[in-house]
Amino acid sequence: MVKGTGRITRGSEVFLLTENQSTYIPAGDRHRVSNPGLVDLALIEVQCGEYLGEDDIVRFQDDYGRG
Question: 20, 10 in Cβ contact below 8 A?
Answer without folding.
Answer: no
